[in-house]
Amino acid sequence: MLQKFALAFKTKTIEFFAEDEEEEGEERESISAAVDLDPVPEEIITGQRVVVLKPDPLPQPPQADPETLIPALFATLSSFQAAYLHLQTAHSPLLPDAVRSADRTAVSHLRRLSDLKHSYLQNPSPSSRPVLPLSSHLQAQVQENQNLLRTFDAVVNQLQSDIDKKDAEAAALRQRLRDIEEANSKLARRLDRACAPPDGKVEALLSIGVFDSVLKDTCRVVHRFARCLVDLMKRSGWDLDLAANSIYPNVDYAKPGHCRYAILSYICLGMFGGFDSAGFCLEDSGGVGSDGIDVSTRRMNSLVQFIEHSTVDPLELISGSPSCDFAKFCERKYHQLIHPGMESTFWGDSYHGESMWGSLQSSSPLYEPFVNMASSMWTLHKLAWAYDPAVEIFQVAGGTEFSMVYMESIVRRAVMFGSDHGKKSRPKVEFTVVPGFRVGKTVIQCRVYLNDLKEAV
Q1: Tens of pLDDT, residues 197-246
Q2: Domain count within the chain
Q3: Considering the domain boundaries, does residue 392 fall inside one?
């Protein structure tokens, strides 16, 4: 205010003296004219003083002290933090207007920080520092608190957005669960109607086609495990011919690769061992046969177990219930098929301790294919014991003459005998590869390897 008044007073003073100078000039001209006309003696005026008025100096703004700088610095930093947080939240979901606004705000605070840096770091002497319009100490604290509130508000908004998203996902999962439960209840009602003996639905479900379909799926899984085992034997340096000869000696194979049928037979017959017992060779699962058990109860229990096991993952079942009957079945069958001597040649002593040889371990490369094969065997067994009478299993001993009623050659288009080759005798069985089954009065042929096939193959 004083500065403005001084400037105004200075201007008026200059104008006043300028007018006096103009009037004095005019008087001098008139006097000079009079002097020219009529010169008079010069008169000197004494005792006159000249007063010169000068404006007051401009007030200098106070130099910024560190007590004001530090709060301003923290307030600017908190402002930048809040602006940057708003910039981040504006990207998810993307809001272009909010992104541009937050970006401009963040840049302005960065410029403010840059000004503070250049003002107070590049000019260490207080007298040489340019004066910056810093806020007061209390104003800086208020600004910092406001920025903290904006930061908290952005965080709360982000958390609320996450909560809303999780609530939406939970609602969708609850709806999906209700749909699954409703579908399961419908399937349960259909199963109850299908398994109800008065309606005769069990016989419709337990047909020969159903058993044959499950048997073919089981054979495919066994073939996959056999391929894995054979590949592992070849990588470990095994001689497949010697291994096949140890299983079935003195067999004249039609082709060198047919020795794999002996290994497949070893796996199939080993896995199907005990198939004719209700417990599948588990002494604590009902013993052998079905004596003392009501037929309808046995059929219903077997059918329920068949359906339940068909809907679960066998790997998860073993890991979740390591003491269940299926886990015990897998452990026993693995111990019968893969003895410790085979494992030591496959992986060596460095794979795991000697105490673990002959036991099914999840770290073994054969773990997953073996569990899947055992699961198929377990499912087929439960289905077989749901029939009335239970499905019977049979196999053919070596040296038995081939019968097209009960047998099928494992080598396709290999059964060429009689008048086609001028032979009077039928070919004989070397060994059974896949056993056969009797479902009521229907026979599912066993698959065998025949001798003297070199002319037919």
Answers
A1: 544 455 667 888 899 999 999 999 999 999 999 998 888 888 999 999 99
A2: 3
A3: no
